């Protein structure tokens, strides 16, 4: 599966502990990444300063569902399950 352009769920739902330009301490779960533009596209996609975690993310139906809303719910649920 390819990422749905404009989804942004993987840049909102999970916590990211590595530095992100503009977010030197990473970001907590549920917080929108500062690098998402108004169309939910990553402003640093393909740039070396993009966190390695983001580069390794692979869109899969089990994680991304069939809509952006479902992806946000699924990734939020996965994040919560790994924090318990």
Structural description of this entry:
With 84 residues, this protein is mainly α. It has one domain. Helix content is 30%, strand content 0%. The protein has helices at residues 52-56, 61-64, 68-83. It starts with 51 loop residues before the first helix and ends with a helix. InterPro entries: Puta_zinc/iron-chelating_dom, UPF0153_domain.
In whole angstroms, the N-to-C terminal distance is 29 Å
Shape: globular
Instruction: Give the fraction of residues assigned to helices.
Output: 25-40%
Indicate the low-confidence ranges by residue numbers.
none
Strand fraction equals: under 5%
Radius of gyration: 12 Å
By DSSP, the count of extended strands is 0
Largest sheet: none
Q: Structural class given helices, strands, pairing?
A: mainly alpha
Mean of the pLDDT scores? 95
> How many helix segments?
3
Give me the oligomer status: single chain
Protein name: Proteinase inhibitor
InterPro entries: Puta_zinc/iron-chelating_dom (IPR005358), UPF0153_domain (IPR052572)
Organism: Shewanella loihica (strain ATCC BAA-1088 / PV-4)
Pfam family, one: CxxCxxCC
């Amino acid at each position: 599966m390819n990422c749905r352009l404009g989804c942004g769920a993987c840049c909102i739902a999970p916590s990211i502990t590595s530095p992100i330009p503009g977010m030197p301490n990473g970001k907590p779960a549920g917080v929108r990444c500062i690098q998402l533009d108004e169309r939910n596209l990553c402003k640093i996609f393909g740039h070396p300063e993009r966190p390695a975690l983001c580069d390794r993310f692979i869109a899969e139906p089990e994680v991304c569902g069939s809509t952006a809303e479902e992806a946000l719910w699924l990734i939020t649920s996965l994040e919560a399950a790994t924090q318990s």
